[in-house]
Specification:
By secondary structure, the chain is mainly beta. Helices cover 8% and strands 53% of the residues. The chain has a twelve-stranded antiparallel barrel with strand order 1-2-3-5-6-9-10-11-12-13-14-16. The radius of gyration is 23 Å and the shape is globular. The N terminus is likely disordered.
Length: 292
């Protein structure tokens, strides 16, 4: 028998063997990425495995603002998550457009009580925000992932109105936020759960919140992702709360579906149902996430 590798083991077989051997020794972070099972609102404590873009369409009803109520409309926004390594990540949140109608409640306006149009290249309570995320604990060590986030946001563009005096809403202001994130699995790893427990500090805002121009809101979110129905369709239940447990409360419960189209693309839809308060009373959300 010849000792030459080229006769007993062709070159292509040798290459395949090396790739298989190397792949078997790769750490989990370098293995094939899992499907993009991202809920509509709640974020994982675990760092994502690649640059990920999320785009959202949100329809909302009966929201209350500082100088208007019965605000019905829709908005578009983008999120970009950039992992720096397996522990650190940057997250940019960008409100793109908001449009709707509301009833003017400002007693200083001659058309108080009438319907006005509201529109602009911005958001309502979501400012353009850059966040830093840090994963502290890993599921392989403790059974769950643990992390925190810190962010700073500002109003980039106001919301114009058709009020008689040409008033503009949410035309200034700053926001900083921070919180703790957790995620893990339950019931034999069949259910994925996520929880975010944060605070938002708003200051120097105007024509935004019934709470005034400077206020602090709790920002609480939780989600459970259930096993797939058929080919890649995962049911989700998600709850969110934004408010101060006093003057402003926006509590929603949202049944959702996530459709995974391969490992790097998912399409999502949900119906947020308001459970009282001043926030969205009944809405619809459509969202995509793509990992580059």
């Amino acid at each position: 028998m010849s000792t030459r590798i080229s006769r007993s083991l062709p070159l292509e077989r040798l290459v395949v063997a090396v790739i298989v051997l190397a792949g078997s020794r790769l750490p989990a972070a370098m293995a094939a990425p899992p499907p993009l099972l991202l809920p509509l609102e709640t974020r994982y404590a675990q760092t994502l495995e690649g640059l990920t873009l999320t785009g959202s369409y949100r329809y909302f009803t009966d929201m209350e603002l500082q100088e208007a109520d019965r605000f019905d409309g829709w908005s578009l926004d983008l999120d970009l998550s950039l992992p720096l390594n397996d522990r650190f990540q940057l997250w940019l949140s960008l409100p793109v457009y908001t449009r709707g109608q509301a009833r003017l409640t400002n007693p200083g306006q001659p058309d108080t009580g009438r319907e006005i149009d509201i529109k602009g290249n911005g958001g309502v309570y979501n400012f353009t925000t850059l966040n830093f995320e840090h994963q502290l604990g890993f599921a392989r060590d403790s059974g769950y992932n643990l992390g925190y986030y810190l962010g700073l946001g500002m109003v980039v563009d106001p919301l114009d109105t058709s009020a008689a005096k040409g008033d503009v809403y949410n035309h200034r202001g700053r926001m900083t936020q921070g919180g703790v994130k957790l995620d893990g699995t339950a019931w034999g790893d069949s259910i994925r759960w996520l929880g975010n427990f944060g605070l938002r500090w708003y200051w120097q805002t105007d024509d935004l919140s019934p709470s005034g121009d400077n206020f602090t809101y709790f920002d609480l979110k939780g989600a459970a992702i259930f096993p797939a129905w058929g080919e890649g369709v995962h049911p989700v239940i998600e709850a969110t709360y934004l408010g101060d447990f006093g003057q402003y409360n926006a509590l929603t419960l949202s049944p959702e579906l996530i459709l995974t189209l391969g490992p790097d693309l998912s399409l999502k839809a949900g119906i947020p149902v308001g459970l009282g308060g001043e926030g969205n009373q009944l809405g619809a959300t459509a969202q995509f996430s793509y990992r580059f």
